[in-house]
Structures are given as structure tokens and as C-alpha cells.
Amino acid sequence: MPDQPAKETAISGIQLNLRIISTVIFNFSSYLTIGLPLAVLPGYVHDVMGFSAFWAGLVISLQYVSTLISRPHAGRYADLWGPKKVVIFGLFGCLLSGLFYGAAALTSDNAVLSLTLLCVGRLILGIGQSFAGTGSTLWGVGAVGSLHIGRVISWNGIFTYGAMAIGAPLGVVLYRYGGLMLLAETIVAIIVVSVALAWPRPAVKGSKGKPIPFRDVLGKILPYGLILAMASAGFGVIATFITLFYQDKGWEGAAFALTLFSAAFVGTRLLFPNAINRRGGLFVAMVCCAVEALGLFLVWGAWDPLIAKTGALLTGAGFSLVFPAIGVEAVKVVPTQNQGSALATYTAFMDLSLGITGPLAGLIMSVAGVPVVYLLTALLVCLAFYMILRLKQPNRAAA
């Protein structure tokens, strides 16, 4: 990636953060549309509509599948159209999902039609989120310069998980008072406001160079994506299975362990906003993987709830900066005109990892017990540490 103009460094910390927030706020909106129905739709499909747990799970999973499939396309179009157009396109996808939820509510007397409308809405939501999320990140990078790409990715993550944390309980409240229709109307209203705010904002200029083929982008990104995938497994097993781990041990307080994990994740990003620029992405990622692996080892060997909570906290703190730290290094290996494709492809490895981790860890649990999952995941994060070490070796030789 070419060096950025020196004027980037003249932006004060507060101005820098405000510029970033003014663009990643649109990713916050897109993730609100994910969080709002997250805790509602499974119960609605199973208990109200009368479908099996399989269909309840499928309705949720469809969004993640379409997100994974559409991410590379989102990146390619961000490179071709520019981030602003991609963000607005993605927001309209989120708006359409709300309209399909409303249509499903109106056709609730016809269960099959209503379920079909929900499924279509979830598929469209996945596409909308991948475009809005990828575009928001690149819009932020264009606003402050690629020198600060790590900070942009960090803020994007904070807003992502913040939206999910706010959206799920808010969605339950809305559903309780107005059913699926009120939920749908709220989603549409959020997106209408977001589009109205995004439309007048200035676009950023894209690169005029000829992009390299997607196959070449994937080849260059592959080692970085694999590292992210392995590190993401630690996030997956804490977020998904810590409750089962506590039940297996006969302990209480799993919810607080999740709170510690989330607080450490967000807190680390807020406390160390300049760590990647100062120490380099690979160094920060190595430290983070070491901390994450230590946390997972502690959860595996925990003989006391306090040890497990400490492990969850360390896992959250460690995983927090892996995504931006490795992401900074990943975009350096492609031309500027392929930044969108690079970021989207890189992010898809996390989507894929989280999609695989759940069923695979569940299978391992059924055979070897719950704690073993945390041991194996810790070893996987150690492998990610080793891969980062190998990536650093050419840098050492050059030095």
C-alpha cells in the first residue's frame, strides 16, 4: 500500500475518532438490525408459528450464510463504486429485511408463506450487512487515511458488538409490546434515518489503478485469514459454550463471565488505540494470541469459578486486537485499489470460523466432554501465534 500524505498525522486524536465514528456509525445501524430480531425470531418461529427447532435455527443461520457468501462481492464493489455507495446499498438491504419481517407478520395466518418471507428477509439482511460493514470500514479509512486503518477497524468492532449488545434486549422489549410488526417498523425507521444521514456525507475518492484478480487477492490474504480464523475460534467457544461449561461444572455465574469477556474486548480496544501503529500489527497480534491462549488454558483447567472468569476476561482482552492487528498487515500485501476486496475476504475467514466452530465444538463435546474444547482451542490459538512468528521472520531478515 502506498504511503499516505503527511497531513494524516496532523489530525488530533479527538478529530480522528470523530471522523471515524461518523462513518462506522452506519455499521452500528446495520448491526442493530441484526441484534433486534436475534433473541426474538427463534422463539417466534418455534413457539408462535409452530415449526421445529431446526427451522428456528435455520432462520437465524441464513443471515450468516449470506453474509459469508456476499462479503467478497461487497469488497469488490467497494473498490469499484466507492465506499459511500456500497454503504447506502447495504443499508437498503437492511431496510428490505425489515419490510419482509413486516410482511411475515401480516401473513402469520399462512405459516409456510410467513416463514418463507422471514427466510428471504434474513438472506437479504446478510447481504445488506456485508455491504454496509465493508463499506463503513473503507469509508472510515478514506476519511482518515490508511495510516489509521487499525484504529478504524477497532472502532468498527466496538460499534458492531455494542449494537448487538443493545439490539438483543431492545428487540425483546419491542416484541413484547408490539409483536413482530413493531420490531419490523423499528428496523425500517432506523435505516431510514441512517440513509438520510449517509446521503449528504462527502464520498471519498477511490484508487484509479487496475485491481488485481480476486484469486490473487485470496492468495495474498490466505495466511492472514487463517490466523484470524484460528484466533476467532477462541471467541466462538467462549461466546457459545461458556454457559454449558459452567453447567458441566455445576457452577453459577456464566452470564458474568460473558460480561467480563465483552468488557475486556471493548476495554482493550479503547485503552490501546495506538498500539498497532506504535508496535506493528504482527507484534500486537503475537501478544494478543499469547494472552488469548493463556485465557483459554485457564478456562480448560479451571477448578474454581474465579479461575474460569479470569480466563474469559483474558480471552476477551487477547482476541480484541487480533482482528485489527492482522487486518492492518493483510491490506499491506495488496494494491490500494484492492483494499475493499482484501478487507472483505479477510473478514470472511472470521465468518467461516464462527460458522464452523459451533457444530464442530458441539461434536467434540459429545465425545470428549466440554472442557476439552477449550484445550483444543487454546492449542489452535498457539498455532496462530506460531504462524505470526513465521510471518515476522522475513521482517527480521530485512532488518
TrEMBL record:
CDD domains assigned to the protein according to its UniProt record, in alphabetical order: MFS_YfcJ_like (cd17489)
A Pfam cross-reference name: MFS_1
Subcellular location: Cell inner membrane; Cell membrane
Main location: membrane
Domain of life from the UniProt record: Bacteria
Single GO molecular function: transmembrane transporter activity
Signal peptide segment: none
Protein's membrane topology: Multi-pass membrane protein
InterPro entries noted in UniProt: MFS (IPR011701), MFS_trans_sf (IPR036259), MFS_Transporters (IPR050171), MFS_YhhS-like (IPR023008)
Keyword terms, alphabetized: Cell inner membrane, Cell membrane, Membrane, Transmembrane, Transmembrane helix, Transport
Cellular-component GO terms for this entry: plasma membrane
Spans through the membrane: 20-42, 48-65, 86-106, 153-174, 180-200, 221-247, 253-272, 281-300, 312-331, 343-365, 371-389
Similarity section: Belongs to the major facilitator superfamily. YhhS family.
Protein name: Uncharacterized MFS-type transporter EM595_0246
